[in-house]
Design goal:
cell membrane, mainly alpha, Growth Hormone, Chain: A, MFS_TsgA-like, 21 helices, MFS_trans_sf, transmembrane helix, globular
């Protein structure tokens, strides 16, 4: 694969450029607001679980819709400018979401999430290959782990800020709205609750614009990955090889289990009888566990074990925690779900480099296909909320999570070590 690297990007050692680049291109914590937002829209728009779970459905569906167009944009304008453009699109979606929620228009709010997801899709199409190519391939998982640490820092703070600033009395609002006999009084209660989200989202939009400017003006190198203008047989063979095709399936399942642990945990905990005042913080707890997992992976890979072995151990841990969550009840079961963040942390940093390894000139398209597989985050939570009234929330959770971890484990063992 022909990659143009400036001299400052060493392929022989873990350089300052690798660390700085991984940190600067880390994605913001936008996706991790979906967990508390599910509870927020349930109260604000009086929705059931299926209606509220359109939040992650629309958000992650955008990855499927916009991955290939984003790949074309990234090839045209380059990876670095693609990063800056992605942040600007995310800012527009964030502002639209805040405006529509304050205006009490749920369909418009979902449209804002779709735009935000489009920006994140462009970000993923550019950031993952950028960080993977920023240095030697055996350290790719380590670089993506640094990016993940920065991401999860924002991801922990964002839902905490939303819970404290916007949802601090969500239980009381829900009770007062249910108790109000006059529809006008009920609407006034909910309208005031929804308006509280406006300025936090406008502030996040402004931060994203500032980050776009920082990326555009930074000395980060531009890494060029040329794509064949006319696909030939060799190019097609790289795209159709089993490593990538199976990796797409594994990525679909991985994002599904990650979203279940981060976004569905609030609904899971309410099934255990925990009140809204407690469940609003659980997404941040999952992300804190992911942060610990990233830090552990950063120290261990590749110093103590390979990224492939780390992924296998993570899948085994996910299987064990899923079984414990199924076998226990109450706070202990919810804690096992939150700890899935720890087991999930080092799957993605290893899975993405394994899947695109050897893609050569087809790397941008391979990256786009993997990002399309992020739509697993749209499908798996919808299956969960639609099946849990029939089968019960604990059995459905285990039924979705356990086979997914096992499938990713098989991929890592039989494909990742080739």
């Amino acid at each position: 694969m022909s990659v143009n690297r400036p001299r400052s990007v060493s392929v022989l050692s873990w350089t300052r450029s690798e660390k700085r680049g991984s940190a600067r291109v880390a994605a913001p914590g936008g996706p991790w607001l979906n967990g508390p937002l599910i509870s927020f829209v349930q109260v604000a728009f009086s929705l059931d679980d299926v209606g509220a779970f359109f939040i992650p459905f629309v958000f992650y569906l955008s990855y499927f819709l916009f991955a290939l167009p984003s790949s074309a944009v990234a090839r045209r304008i380059g990876l670095k400018r693609g990063l800056a453009s992605a942040l600007l699109v995310m800012a527009a979606g964030t502002a639209l979401f805040g405006e529509c929620v304050a205006g009490r228009w749920y369909a418009g709010a979902l449209a804002g999430l779709l735009v935000l997801g489009a920006g994140l899709t462009l970000l993923q199409v550019t950031v993952n290959p950028y960080v993977s190519l920023l240095g030697p391939p055996e350290r790719a998982a380590q670089r993506i782990a640094i990016m993940g640490i920065c991401n999860k820092c924002a991801g922990i703070l964002a839902p905490l800020a939303l819970a404290l600033l916007v949802m601090r009395d969500i239980g009381g609002v829900a009770e007062r709205a249910r108790a109000a006999r006059d529809p006008a009084v009920r609407e006034a209660i909910l309208a005031g609750f929804m308006r509280a989200i406006y300025w936090p989202y406008m502030g996040m939009a402004a931060i994203l614009v500032a980050m776009a400017a920082l990326i555009a003006l930074s000395p980060l190198p531009e890494l060029d990955v040329p794509l064949s203008r006319r696909p030939d047989d060799a190019w097609r063979a790289r795209i159709l090889r089993p490593r990538l095709l199976a990796g797409i399936g594994a990525m679909f399942l991985y994002v599904g289990v990650e979203v279940m642990a981060g976004d569905a945990i609030g609904t899971y905990a309410r099934g255990m009888g925990l009140p809204l005042e407690q469940t609003r913080f659980l997404t941040a707890l999952t992300l804190a566990a992911m942060m610990l997992g990233y830090l552990a992976g950063l120290l261990a890979v590749p110093r103590l074990l390979s990224q492939e072995r780390c992924m296998e151990l993570s899948c085994l841990a996910g299987c064990g925690l899923t079984v414990l969550a199924w076998a226990t009840h109450g706070t202990l079961s919810v804690l096992c779900v939150a700890l899935l963040g720890l087991s999930n942390a080092m799957i993605m940093p290893a899975l993405f480099p394994i899947a695109i390894r050897g893609a050569g000139a087809a790397t941008p398209l391979a990256s786009a296909l993997l990002v399309m597989a992020f739509s697993g985050g749209a499908v798996m939570p919808q299956l969960y909320v639609r099946l849990k009234p029939v089968m019960g929330f604990q059995p459905v959770f285990a039924m979705l999570m356990l086979p997914s971890y096992l499938a990713i484990l098989l991929y890592g063992r039989h494909v990742g070590r080739e």
